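Course assignment 3, question 2. Fill in each field.
Student: A.L.
Task: Predict the tertiary structure for the chain below.
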Amino acid sequence: MKAWTRWYGMPLLLMVGLLPSCVPESVPESPEPIAEETTNITAGTAAERISQIEPILVITLPSDLQDAYFIETRIGTDSRLAPGPSDYRSYYRLQIEPASVELWRQVLDPLEETPPTYDATGRPDWWVTAEKFEQLEFYKPESLTQRINGWIGLHPETGEIYIFTYTT
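Answer field:
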């Protein structure tokens, strides 16, 4: 046998020999239920909610908020192998003066694709209605949240801003 065939075969033998040590001794038979944790900023006065939500937004706001709501649900945990890293779903509702809409348009980037069709399943009661959803102007969420998945919907007549973001 030539020397090179013995040499190149060694890493394979070593890998096969070490493989059993990489497998955990016990694997749970059934996974734990997926944990959910919710951050909810809907109680208190408008001023209290605004003071809690403004720091979450990543820009200096172009005008004052009149009111704000926020709910974020974390699904899963980072400490378990399954289902993997946590997934987040966040819902914001910001209220601005309708006269300030143009200032907000200047700091938002238009959404290039159409957001998904309206679905109110599991949404908070202060979330956008199907009728208002059709009237929203859509923008990318990064400009306010630094998240790339989701959308910002601006209602030009009422000054309502809805933000939906998620991670996968």
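Instructor remarks: The chain is about 25% helix and 25% strand. The radius of gyration is 24 Å.
Grade: pending
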